[in-house]
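Memo to structure team: turn this sequence into structure tokens by end of day. - J.P.
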Amino acid sequence: MKKRPFAIAIVVFFVIFVFFAGIILIMSSSRGSGQKFALSDKVGVIEVLGTITDSKAIVDQLIDFGQNHAVKAIVLRVDSPGGGVGPSQEIYDEVVRLTALKPVVVSMGSVAASGGYYISAPANRIFANPGTITGSIGVIMEFTNVIALMDKVGLKTNVIKSGDHKDIGSSVRAMTDQEKALLQSLIDDVHDQFVTAVSEGRHLEKDQVFKLADGRIFTGRQAQQQGLVDELGGLQAAIHYAGELAGIEGTPDVLYPAEPKPDLIDYFISRTASEIERVMLKTDTQGLQLLWSQRQTY
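Reply from structure team:
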């Protein structure tokens, strides 16, 4: 019987398409039903872990829980030494917005310092372990100068720039006094924004925050004494308190954001392409074997 590789590939493609389409429909329906038909009021827990370099995932989770009617309160579990100014401010802004909709409680883990404290400040209540490292209210920029090393190895550099300050912070030349003043003014402005956020979030006088905002770190117990933290306790204490704020009786059910799901469409396409390639290769191999056997017969 004459083989038709293209027809075989089409059949394989159709079978795989039906299989994965069914999986997508099942997962989509179950994902939607979890949001719409929640059986009880819940406390949502969102984790901020590690250095804050990007805000999108956390902001999306905050928005999602803010719109989820089953989530009556949110616990922001912060275990971060800080990170970028911009991403920290974007998360901060979303926490501020969310506190107008439902209670937000922060639970500090091992460390919640610098940007980790920044995003915690606007919460309705902040919990920290007695040994949590927190605070570090400050801003820093660091520049490395390698002129001496370049002189040793005989390297030279040429810079073409459109303005005097375009290469500010360059590692291959000394920084001028004017450049130092410019960068210091930038740091001072961002620092003032940080202090203002803490002052507003913690309902403290700005002058009082400035006295604590020299970059020093605190234990959770020290931070509580300074008014930077409300209560000492772990994650479960924060969850129970959030449930009480939301009016949930007893131990509240906890909801975490869904794990990122693989893109089934991309997976389906790649698997289908691989299967088609396998079928075509197998057919081509059979054809070569036939030609070889015919050649041997000659």
